[in-house]
Amino acid sequence: MEVLITGLNTYLGRRAVSHLNSEEFRVTGLVRNLELFNKRLNEPVTADLIEIDLFKTNTLSKNFSLGNLQLGIYFTQVPGLNDQLNMQMELISLRNFIQVCKENMCNRIVYVAQLMDSFYIDAIQSLFEEHRVKYTVVLKCSAVGKGTIISDIFGRLAKSKFIPYWKLIGDLKFKPIPLLDVYRWIRTIPWEDNFIGEVIYLGGEESLNYKQLFNQYMEVYHPDREYKTFSIKKWLVKLVYTRFYRIHEENFDEFRRVMKYEAEVDNTSWSRKVHFTFTTINRCFLLDQ
């Protein structure tokens, strides 16, 4: 199957160029600036990469051609669809991606977003319907693994003996998914004739709260280190995380925004049709470092 992907500026899209491609799933990725993108990579690229800026219509190549393109995969390009400007940029990019797919005789697109985008996807669906695209929207739980926002923050916190959290997030149950499982799952689903016009949810196998997830992280990376978790007031969290743990303010804001909408999602919308075995979180931390 020939597959075209975009949204490579995000951690999900960026690592897809190294982990989504296979003999049966031949991937070509669209990037805005190929030279800059290559400088940010720290893994071997297995996909073919083409420089096309989907935010600028006049950069779309009329000579770009993929023989027998069967599937387009669009990873959200913006931090969140709740912001009006972000939504406008997303719709511009998605409209141009639809155009590129259609010019290559492909009318099947999978749109991959986060749970927090679930309240704002009506505009995305309307755009697909306007262009008569056979689409599926996938709303996924937060991923764990190298390069994810959760693993990056855990890495910062793990340097201290004292691990603060705020109760709402610390006790929140959700189903984190190993990042490499996302790519394996995408390759497993028979997209051609299934889930067309549907919104499906993707979460991991294990239901954990933030503290339990951090404990598993420490068991793998720092098994002999002693640490203590404690609750602090919500208004103090950002100050403590950014000032004392050196977590970048933008990363913290994204983490807080994402975690606010995490939940114990139900996979039955797709698991009734497709069997898939998830990697355990503990093994994910071991394998994806």
**What percent of residues are in strands?**
15-25%
What are the segments in which pLDDT stays under 50 over at least 5 consecutive residues? Answer: none
- Measured as a percent range, the helix fraction is 25-40%
Q: From the helix content, strand content and strand pairing, which structural class follows?
A: alpha/beta
Question: Mind telling me which CATH architecture of the largest domain this is?
Answer: 3-Layer(aba) Sandwich
Q: What series of H and E elements makes up the topology?
A: EHEHEEHEHEEHEHEEHEEHEHHHH
Biggest β-sheet strands, sense, barrel: 7 strands, parallel
**CATH fold-level topology of the largest domain:** Rossmann fold
Put simply, the count of helices is 12
Query: Which sequence of strands runs across the widest sheet?
Result: 3-2-1-4-5-6-11
Instruction: Report the CATH C-level class of the largest domain.
Output: Alpha Beta
Task: Determine the N-to-C terminus distance.
Answer: 29 Å
What is the C-alpha radius of gyration, as a whole number of Å?
A: 19 Å
CATH superfamily of the largest domain: NAD(P)-binding Rossmann-like Domain
Plain-language structure description:
The chain is α/β, with parallel strands linked by helices and 289 residues long. It has two domains: 2-140, 3-Layer(aba) Sandwich (Rossmann fold); 149-174 and 206-262 and 275-287. Helix content is 39%, strand content 20%. The protein is built from twelve helices and 13 strands. It has helices at residues 11-19, 34-40, 84-103, 122-130, 149-157, 167-170, 179-188, 210-221, 234-244, 249-260, 268-271, 281-287; strands at 2-6, 26-31, 48-51, 69-75, 108-114, 134-140, 143-144, 162-165, 173-174, 177-178, 198-202, 208-209, 228-231. The strands form four sheets. The chain has a seven-stranded parallel beta sheet with strand order 3-2-1-4-5-6-11. β5 (108-114), α4 and β6 form a beta-alpha-beta unit. The model has no long low-confidence stretch (mean pLDDT 93).
